[in-house]
Design a protein that fits this description.
- There is one protein chain.
- Helix content is about 40%, strand content about 15%.
- The chain is α/β, with parallel strands linked by helices.
- The strands form four sheets. It has a seven-stranded parallel sheet, sandwiched between helices. The chain has a two-stranded antiparallel ribbon with strand order 1-2. Strands 7-8 form a two-stranded antiparallel sheet.
- It is globular, with a radius of gyration of 21 Å.
- The site of sodium ion has 6 residues, from helix 3.
Length: about 425
């Protein structure tokens, strides 16, 4: 009967070209098929509030963020806009909502971000499309020429399982596999809490090359080349891409696996780009960030169990951070704080608290003990699950999920 009522009301509103519905989470494996516009907006509001509470950052004024709609990219955009009053252009690949079909969270996040940025008098425009393509690069080049002239900071925060190569049209798929031998370890299904052993077969055929093609540095360099060729980078411009290292327990499948090979390539590309930027005194950096619940990391076996233990320990020690806290610290203390504190490989490290010896020693201890029975206690399984749903705008504090919402939100600059 409730369903019937809902259908009638949806039909009624459809005739008026607006739709009102109640949106609930629908999950399949490690993805959620629906997302909630009000919850996504509340997440953005909370991130803006965090940045505002931390005070001004003397940072870049014209910022291009590639991968700007979720995770570290969205947090970088919010930090730039609300910490340094920067004009921002955001590029991402997200599903626009239609009547009865919610959009992807990045779409709602960006609609909310632009709304609040514009209300604060800030320039913010967005480009929704495949950042790996020549068309989207051309579109962004055109937009910078028309609106901003030059860019001071380029954030590269794309995370994608596939890439169509712009020169050949060939489609590459990345894989998450160990290299050389089978990797067996514990993992958790964070929906059910079941801890089990998982074995992952090693990379074969073109797995390594394909993963490097998708998640390595080639596209980052293509972006920087395209911008430099049109003189769209200001004197001393910088660019930053994000990487991950992580603990011993995930090393075979992450850093020493196919994705790690891509991260090695990304990190090496920073030096190549810095070389290219010599004439304008520009620099390219990689920042190694902390493990966080994002759509990308939930898909990697073993990582969810590690993160649930990590969160418990870091929260207990008062050093837990989410994407926005990480980016606030990266921008205020490292990028624009006068001390990059580079490691021996020239990388910025905001995974420093995650990698602290005391934190890692406790994880190694708990890792051995973790079972389905004790994980809710020794790990932050609830925190993991809540944060996963919050990526899609669900289980966000202060949001009334029984209220009808209009799912057909439009990003202001795309109107
Ligand atoms: P995410 O999935 O939250 O964000 C990915 C972004 O890329 C989204 O805005 C998405 O729309 C965009 N995108 C994907 N494919 C695209 C395409 N073809 N064209 C345009 N936009 C596209 O990911 P995240 O976790 O924030 O990861 C960002 C970076 O940070 C990655 O390099 C990742 O490896 C790194 N990192 C992640 C973690 C972690 O624990 N999540 C830790 C350290 C570093
Ligand atoms: Na991102």
């Amino acid at each position: 009967c409730w369903i019937e009522l809902k259908r009638i009301s949806t039909l009624f509103y459809q005739t008026k070209k607006i739709s009102i519905m109640i949106i609930e989470p629908r999950t399949r494996g490690f993805i959620c098929l629906t997302s909630h516009p009000t919850g996504c907006e509340q997440n953005v509001i909370n991130q803006i509030a965090h940045i505002t509470s931390k005070g001004k950052i003397d940072g870049a004024k014209k910022v291009l963020v590639l991968g700007a709609s979720t995770g570290f990219g969205l947090a970088s955009r919010i930090t730039s806009a609300f910490g340094s009053e920067a004009a921002t252009i955001g590029v991402f690949f997200d599903k626009q909502p239609t009547v009865g079909r919610p959009g992807s969270p990045g779409y709602y996040n960006t609609a909310a971000f632009e709304k609040h940025a514009h209300a604060a008098g800030l320039y913010a425009k967005s480009v929704n499309g495949d950042a790996f393509s020549n068309e989207i690069k051309d579109q962004v080049v055109q937009l910078i020429k028309e609106d901003l002239g030059q860019i001071d900071l380029v954030i590269y925060s794309l995370a994608s399982p596939v890439r169509t190569h712009p020169n050949t049209g060939k489609r590459f798929k990345s894989v998450l596999k160990p290299i050389g031998e089978v990797f067996t370890n514990k993992t958790v299904d964070f929906h059910t809490g079941a801890v089990s052993e998982i074995s992952i077969n090693p990379a074969e055929g073109d797995d390594i090359e394909n993963t490097v093609t998708v998640m390595g540095g080639e596209d980052w360099k293509m972006w920087m080349d395209a911008l430099q060729a049109e003189n769209l980078l200001s004197e001393g411009a910088i660019t930053v891409a994000y990487s991950y290292i992580g603990p011993d327990v995930t090393r075979p499948v992450y850093r020493n696996g196919t994705i790690g090979a891509a991260k090695d390539h990304l990190e090496a590309t920073a030096f190549a780009i810095t070389d290219d930027l010599k004439s304008i005194g520009g620099k390219a950096y990689v920042s190694v960030n902390k493990a966080l619940v994002t759509q990308a990391s939930s898909a990697i076996p073993v990582i969810p169990l590690y993160i649930s233990l990590l969160y418990k320990i870091m929260k207990a020690k008062g050093i837990h951070e989410g994407c926005i806290e990480q980016m606030q610290r990266l921008f205020s203390q490292r990028l624009f704080g006068g001390d990059l504190a580079l490691d021996e490989k020239g990388r910025i490290r905001v995974d420093d608290w995650e990698m602290r010896a005391d934190v890692q020693a406790e994880i190694a201890e708990l890792w051995k003990k973790a079972t389905s029975e004790n994980l809710p206690e020794i790990g932050d399984l609830q925190g993991y699950s809540d944060e996963f749903f919050s990526l899609f705008g669900f289980k966000v504090l202060g949001v009334d999920y029984d209220a009808d919402v209009n799912e057909v939100v439009v990003i202001p600059s795309e109107q």
